[in-house]
Amino acid sequence: QRGHLCxxxxxxxxxxxxxxxxxxxxxxxxxxxxxxxxxxxxxSIYHLEGYCE
Length: 53
Fold this sequence. Notes:
single chain, two-stranded antiparallel ribbon, carbohydrate metabolism, hormone activity, Insulin-like domain-containing protein
């Protein structure tokens, strides 16, 4: 399932996916930030996991 996640919805999704591991807003694998990847375009939970610590 893919969806647009912006603002607090994006942060809530990251807390849900990453849990106590925490997360960061830029991925080493991709120069684009999570806002560009998940707010401007739809992304999946699997994509969000790439931003977990």
